[in-house]
Design goal:
It is a single chain. Helix content is 51%, strand content 11%.
Length: 435
């Protein structure tokens, strides 16, 4: 193993939750005055604040997101709200999630390298406000996939991002004290963890008022809920999610939390929105990306046209993502393994075999979590536009039914499926049906 100097990074100062006594929601009308009071932001925008243009661009699920343009530049201002915006004030949420999002962005920028997450320009903890660079020229990758744009670099970039951020925040890279303090700091993001625990592993499996699925899908949902093996398996995955604090996760990594520039030689990919960040099993983030690619593949027959060619391309991205992850993870194993887990003084010459065994376990975990995420997006709250926009409902339900049956195999049989390649072959068989 190469000798690397000890890591000196932001983990020496775990995220701390401030008082929100002076918190005030940022409105379009008030934004110019409040941003003008920040010298660095005012200088970046330039000109008189009264001339700045401001638009709200949030997806409506959680936060306010504003794009502010001035004569000299632009910024994106994101502010947490004290409730789930998608539902309303009846579902309160802590403002502290902005603290964890900021901390995760800073760590991801260090671990994954420059240019993969937005540059943070200003953070005002007591206002739950992050001001960052405006990713002008980028679009959400999910929409690009729906539009059948082919970004050849996106899946590999996400694979390497996962390898860097997961490996470097784990006991493979960090000294035990730093890693434990880091884990303890992010453990306070418990409210958003509970949202994931409920929405992914619990609510879809019983008659919860937050569930939202196509009515024509009801017989398949009833089938799922009657399947004892499925119900037992999903609780095993929930146990893993809740108890295996292996690495700092993005926590909500999918095609909707990646932004891309137009496909071609100058493709750029940025990862956004890590407010669900916490310490959990490495396979979760990987599985979340795989799930969203498989959901898009499932939607392709419903979009018509030459859907088979596009579905084949999307399915190929799953293996490219996994290959990029394993390649980078293996490289880090050789060059950056300075923690107290999997040490060479014990492994000796068995280091490569230990790496392969760990990757095999992460791969199985990724499959199981992918199945859980696919189920949640089809049956639970806040589905994916890839499927949700399909019309008529019968077409949508047919695509969703195929995806849900695949999800069941992943949840119940991840260990026997064992590989992303095998799961992708299964997807090609199950998601390509048209009857």
């Amino acid at each position: 193993m190469d000798q690397v100097s000890p890591l000196t990074d932001v983990r020496t100062t775990p995220p701390r939750v401030p008082s929100f006594a002076d918190y005030a929601p940022l409105s379009v009308a008030e934004a110019p005055a409040r941003l003008a009071a920040l010298p660095g932001i005012a200088a970046r925008l330039g000109g008189d604040p009264s001339a700045w243009s401001i638009s709200e661009v949030g997806d409506g699920n959680l936060n306010f997101v504003y794009i502010v343009n001035g004569p000299d530049g632009s910024v994106c201002a994101k502010q947490a709200l004290p409730y789930l915006r998608l539902v309303g004030e009846s579902w309160p949420l802590p403002l502290s999630r902005a603290v964890f999002e900021h901390a995760a962005l800073v760590r991801q920028a260090q671990d994954a390298g420059p240019g993969l997450v937005p540059d943070v320009l200003h953070f005002e903890a007591g206002q739950a406000l992050i001001v960052m660079e405006n990713l002008a020229g980028h679009v959400i990758w999910r929409q690009a996939l729906i539009d059948r744009q082919r970004h050849e670099t996106a899946a590999p970039v996400l694979g390497r991002f996962c390898a860097d951020t997961l490996f470097k925040s784990s006991d493979l890279a960090l000294d035990p004290t730093t890693r434990k303090r880091e884990m303890a700091g992010f453990a306070a993001n418990d409210a958003l963890c509970q949202i994931s625990e409920d929405l992914i592993f619990t609510d879809p499996y019983h008659d919860h008022p937050g569930n939202d699925f196509t009515p024509e899908l009801a017989p398949i949902v009833d089938e799922m809920r009657a399947d004892a093996a499925w119900r037992m398996a999903i609780q095993d995955w929930k146990w893993a999610f809740m108890t295996r604090a292996e690495a700092l996760l993005h926590g909500d990594l999918h095609s909707g939390s990646a932004m891309v520039t137009p496909a071609g030689s100058d493709e750029r990919v940025r990862i956004i929105d890590p407010e669900f960040a916490f310490y959990g099993p490495m396979g979760f983030d990987v599985g979340a990306v795989l799930a969203n690619l498989w959901l898009n593949a499932a939607s392709q027959p419903g979009w018509g046209g030459d859907w088979r060619a596009q579905q084949d391309w999307v399915l190929a991205q799953t293996t490219q993502m996994w290959d990029a992850f394993t390649g980078r993870f293996s490289e880090l194993w050789r060059t950056a393994r300075r923690g107290e887990a999997m040490v060479d003084r014990v492994l000796g010459q068995a280091g490569p075999e230990a790496c392969a065994a760990m990757l095999a376990r992460i791969q199985v975990d990724a499959l199981g979590f992918a199945g859980a995420k696919m189920t949640r997006r089809i049956v639970g709250l806040a589905g994916v536009a890839d499927l949700a926009r399909l019309e008529p409902p019968a077409t949508r339900a047919a695509c969703e039914a195929r995806a849900l049956r695949m999800a069941g195999h992943l949840v119940k049989e991840a260990r026997s499926i064992a590989s992303v390649a095998a799961a992708t072959d299964m997807a090609r068989d199950m998601l390509g049906e048209t009857q």
